[in-house]
Amino acid sequence: MNPADADPPGRSPRLWLIAAFALCCFPIAARTAHPLDEQLFVPITPLDRTDGARAEQWSFLEACRPHLPPQPVFTIVAEDPDAAMSLFMMSIGAFPDSLPLPTMYYGMPAPEIGRQADFVLAYRQPPLPHWNLRLVARVRHGAVYARLPAP
Amino acid sequence: MEGATWLAALVFLPAVGSPLLAHRSFGRFPFWSRVVLSGAAGAALVSFSMTLLALADRAWGVAVVVALATVLASGMRVLLRGEPATSPPESASPDVAERLAGAIACIAVIAALLATLGGAATSVDLVFFWGAKAQQFAAARGIDLAFLRNPAHQYMHPYYPPLVSNVFAFATTAAGRFVWTAAALTFPLTLAALAAALPGVLGGMTSARAAAATSALVVTTLACIGIQADIAGNADMPLYLFETLALALLLRPDAAGATGDLLAGLLFAAAATAKVEGLPFAVSATALALWLRGGTPAERAKASARLLGPTAVALAAWFGFGLSRKLFSAYSEYGRFFDIHLEHAGGIAAAIVTSVAATGRGLAYVIPLLCLVGAGRRGRMAALPLGTAAALAGFLVFTYLHSTGGPAQWIGWSAPRVFAPVPVMFALAAACRREA
Questions:
Q1: Would the CB atoms of A15 and B371 count as touching at under 8 Å?
Q2: Contact check, Cβ <8 Å, A92/B132
Q3: What is the pLDDT of chain B when averaged over all its residues?
């Protein structure tokens, strides 16, 4: 047997090329199946086309940014525990100079921690009335509140 | 602009690895393979240097990290003393099949690039913890203990192997700030690096045409899985690069010896410090390679030291840091070790099949398997990728079996990514020569 015989059969590389081409076409075909305006849409968040809910949460954090002072200590409240946790995790990276405090941690309420925050970012729900807050700004999908000094 | 600087900082990786890869014994690899192998070795050395500096309570800076990593790369040349000079195989002009393979690989990389730029492949892990850790570490000029110790940051996974957060922090330090898009672009960038390097590495074990076709198959498989499973910006694509190149190196007939073993060992160290499953991959691939090679016990001991030594040293530094700071002492969050829940076994198998089938209709897993079957009976070296794939799959199932409450959800978001090296191993096995 010579070295050429030891290689995969002559048809194999051709088969692999066809296989590679098929695999290459799949994501392109899946992508071009979407309407043209959707394909040409320039993403605003890193998650626009992978996770619509988290993309909206990212946009909410970005909308809150102008209404927060430098190095804020804040918490996020949301009706949906998954959304609250997701927003908390994303806020750590989105606001690197800040101190986000959880009010809900993987479905477990932690209001005693969240209540220490100076600001409350309320996503799709108002904060609890007894938190003694003033409205700073309404933003898309929610609002920013500041803690009032104790009387 | 900062995004360009962030990505440009990654050029330091091949620069750091180049003193080692410039050794005459690596002359067997074509230019682009050598550049990418330098980059992969450089990533391991940069991450190791950053861990060492953190261990010694010294602040990170671009200059000090590059200097230390370069010194390490240069020092490793001592281990290659006496290794003969080699030269790359004579290059004939590529035939139609090779050009076609190159074009297909380019299309796959462009598809990955467009998906990443379009926000269609971003990993949620990037926005949850990789990005946060990288910028926090860059700001702290080291591994930020206060940040990792914060109980609210438990899901930053303090014990996770450090390579990706270290390299991202390195680029962040160089650029002055973390850039999300640039971090996500490491997916197409690393895929392009694999496309550039793999034909030259595989060229030592099979014909140029088969090497090019195999590389195209591997690159499109990973592009397809990467886009469908949203891996841009996480540790998966770097892991695939390190694992694929290491396995391809070990399949070459000239793999045995200080040059091949040391380079494969550095790639294993990079894999083991990129993700948890990189360690079982390295151990099983090493065991199989040594078994297939044969030789005296002394030769095997020497080879295993070269193949697994860098991994042992890199992980010792990382766990040394964790233990000395009372931060972590083991890989956690996977349940109590050996607390196996066999009652979930059936459900695990079904969940894996379901989640893999839901990722691009499972084509990226099935097509390489069909290519392996179509290639007919392969040589005994095919046992290396196939055995490693089996060991990796076994490890992953073993890990899932530790879940107390049923791992269906965990499998749903992890299986398509963590099983991706398996079809790559099928493609590499298909390319193995039959023995005369």
A1: yes
A2: yes
A3: 94
pLDDT (mean) for A137-141: 95
Residue A1's pLDDT band, with cuts at 50, 70 and 90, is very low
The answer for residues whose C-beta is within 8 angstroms of residue A67's C-beta and 6 or more apart is A136, A137, A139, A144
Rounded to a whole number of angstroms, the distance from the CA of A110 to the nearest CA of chain B is 10
Tokens representing B376?
Answer: 């007919």
Residue numbers in A near B376 (CB within 8 A): 8-9
- The yes-or-no verdict on residue B167 having pLDDT over 90 is yes
CA distance A46 to chain B (A): 5
| Judgement on whether residues A124 and A65 belong to the same structural domain of the protein | yes
Residues of B in contact with A12 (CB under 8 A): 210, 213, 371, 374-375, 430
Q: Do A16 and B214 touch (CB under 8 A)?
A: yes
The identity of residue B399, as a single letter, is T
3-state secondary structure A16-76: HHHHHHHHHHHHHHHHHCCCHHHHHCCCCCCCCCCCHHHHHHHHHHHHHHHHCCCCCEEEE
Between CA B23 and CA B67 the distance in angstroms is: 19
- Note the pLDDT of residue A6: 53
pTM for the structure as a whole:
0.95
Mutation choice for B interface testing from A18, A24, A42, A104 by most B CBs within 10 A: A24
Full residue range of the structural domain in which residue A72 is found:
52-147
Contacts of B153 in chain A (CB under 8 A): 92
- Considering only residues 129 to 148 of chain A, which have any Cβ-Cβ distance to chain B shorter than 8 Å? none
| Domain parsing of chain B, residue ranges | 2-85+118-430
- A97 pLDDT more than 50: yes
Does the pLDDT of residue B214 top 90, yes or no?
yes
- Asked if the structure places residue A98 within a domain, the reply is yes
What is the token pair recorded at B171? 């680029």
Residue A26 lies in a domain: yes
Structure tokens at A108: 């477990």
Q: State how far residue B301 is from chain A, nearest Cα, in angstroms.
A: 31
Considering chain A, what percentage of its residues have pLDDT values greater than 70? 91
Q: Is the minimum CB–CB distance between B224 and chain A shorter than 8 Å? A: yes
- Asked whether residue A29 falls in the same domain as residue A88, the answer is no
Cα A109–chain centre separation: 21
Mean pLDDT of A128-139: 89
| pLDDT value at residue A37 | 74
- Which pLDDT tens digit goes with each residue over B370-391? 999 998 888 899 999 999 999 9
Say if A15 is an interface residue toward chain B (CB within 8 Å). Answer: yes
Closest to B276 (Cα-Cα) out of B388, B426, B157: B157
* Residue A46 maps to a domain: no
Q: Say yes or no for a CB contact (<8 Å) between A89 and B184.
A: no
Q: How much is the pLDDT for A131? A: 82
Query: Do residues A89 and A15 share a domain?
Result: no
Statement to judge: residues A137 and A65 lie in one domain? yes
A109 touches chain B (CB under 8 A): no
Same domain, A104 and A143: yes
Total domains in chain A come to: 2
Residue A35 lies in a domain: yes
Does A31 reach chain B within 8 Å, measured CB to CB?
yes
Same domain as A32, residue A61: no
Compute the distance between CA of residue B276 and CA of residue B267 in angstroms, rounded to an integer. Answer: 14
Q: Which residue has the tokens 């380019």?
A: B106
